[in-house]
Amino acid sequence: MEWRWRYELVSYIGMAISLSKQTLGYHLAHRQVEIGVSYIFSVHCDSNLTLLDYFVVQPGLNLIGCCNELNAGYAADGYARSRGVGACVVTFGVGGLSIVNTIAGAYSEDLPVICIVGGRHSNDYYGARKILHHTIGLPDFNQELACFRAVTCHQFHNHNINIFEFQAVIYNLEDADHQIDTAISTCLKESKPVYISISCSLIAIPHPTFTQKSIPVFLSPNHALGERPNTRRPSPFYRHLLGCRQQCILRRDSRTADASLFVGPVFDDFNSIGDTLLFRKNKAIIVEPERVLIPNGPIFRCVLMKDFLEALSKKLEHNTTAYENHKRIYVPEPEALPKSDPKEGLKVNVLRKHIQKMLLGDMVLTAETGDSWFLCQKLRLPQGCR
């Protein structure tokens, strides 16, 4: 009852001050709506309750409570894949350390995810050598920042110590609006996650820098805040690795083709078929997010992948030779499966048959790397299913 009373009291205070639109809480909530975030995923705790109150009352923004940080992070990951940008809110210390694995995944997949952390009291940033809850039991609060430094893209110039930091850590209101807007615009421009930590004691304090009008933030000559530039990949973009039989065909074709075109390649052990994908580099055109590499020729920089592919599509002629060759030698899996004894163990091919029957046109199928990934390669997606 005591905890419930405290939570209701904090919520009531948050609702009362939410009418002020010159607060950090309103500014951050309003920015989420401006960039197209309609659902934000959270794990509530004492240091982010007031901030969550602003998200609750913000028109156009729906707060989704999650059971743990992994749920919130992966929900924001999936939302970013579907809608272009996602956001999640957790507490400092235990919350930030729990969600960092999902942010690392979003970083590897070039997903713009805004990770918002309800930070400690602003007084704790100024030489207070005391141990706080949610921490690892030391008066040093940099463990969380060190973890996020490697998996976020935003660099902020800290004028107090004249260096560039990789996260937006807000413990005063003087440049809070600048930090927030720069972090969000960098997230959209780079299509990578960003980290925003906000001191819990500053969320409801009015400040003249938080204007009610929308402030345009420069991204590129053709984009402003609220319009996410798709610089990383054509949308939608999905990584796909061919099955075992198709892998042999891919290896053969890559060696015998007159030329190869690789779009956004990451030549890791999986995408290179166990490091066996040998291709002639002197005949391979590689298209990266912001440049095009021509074999034995120049490197064209500041060329967006989307622009390159759109221009290339207008020059190409329809050619089905490779597809016809593939159909000629491809042996499909048998449709019918032999009846199995109800008492014997469940087999993978039987499981795949049942999963196949479950798929509908409005579904999204996600497979984890490993056995399930190889299993799903053989599924036939109905029209509209992704």
Automatic annotation (TrEMBL):
Its cofactor is a metal cation; thiamine diphosphate. It catalyses: a 2-oxocarboxylate + H(+) = an aldehyde + CO2. InterPro entries: DHS-like_NAD/FAD-binding_dom, PDC/IPDC-like, THDP-binding, Thiamin_PyroP_enz_TPP-bd_dom, TPP_PYR_PDC_IPDC-like. It comes from the Eukaryota. One of its GO terms (biological process) is aromatic amino acid family catabolic process to alcohol via Ehrlich pathway. GO terms for cellular component: cytosol. One of its GO terms (molecular function) is thiamine pyrophosphate binding. Homotetramer. PANTHER family: PYRUVATE DECARBOXYLASE. Belongs to the TPP enzyme family. This is pyruvate decarboxylase. It comes from Dipteronia sinensis. The lineage of its organism: Eukaryota, Viridiplantae, Streptophyta, Embryophyta, Tracheophyta.
